[in-house]
Amino acid sequence: MELRKTLTLDGVDYVMTPVNAVLGWSCLQKLLGAIGRSKMMNGGDGSMATAIALAFSVMDGKELAELQGMVFGSTVVRTEAGAMAFKLADQAETHLNTYRSHLPQLLVEGALYQFEDFFTGIRATLGSLFPGMESVMAFLAKAREVAGEADASLPKTETAPTGSSGRPSSGSSPASPS
């Protein structure tokens, strides 16, 4: 998983860091369950509005609130050089009332960032646990593509190798068995 991901929208940097794996997994289960209930089979017409509607329209209020809490709780906001950075969860209402248009893309990118490492190397397992997995994977790919088309230069990432705990791994530790 990327050590952190920076999404820049209208000069505002949203710096995302990994959430606890158990919290991330719990939110992913809710998203997959909602998508499975909807029998969603495609990523829509390719517009950002449709991609967001397809993902979030299948979630109930509690599920969406948990996903939002996960993204907000793992995101720090930097609005301008020299300004004090703050955790989005602490000032979400004030900040997002000013930058309303950032909310949909921030939620999509935040969810993709938090969930993508669960898919690495375990697609077959997840596919057997969640029958709608192929639809989810197609949707996530489409959402990433659509978000990237909005402005390919927006997301900036910093990566570092991580171990199974999500913490940076040292070069001296043994590799995990495959």
UniProtKB/TrEMBL annotation:
<dbReference type="InterPro" id="IPR020351">
    <property type="entry name" value="Phage_TAC_9"/>
</dbReference>
<feature type="region of interest" description="Disordered">
    <location>
        <begin position="149"/>
        <end position="178"/>
    </location>
</feature>
<protein>
    <submittedName>
        <fullName>Uncharacterized protein</fullName>
    </submittedName>
</protein>
<feature type="compositionally biased region" description="Low complexity">
    <location>
        <begin position="163"/>
        <end position="178"/>
    </location>
</feature>
<dbReference type="Pfam" id="PF10876">
    <property type="entry name" value="Phage_TAC_9"/>
</dbReference>
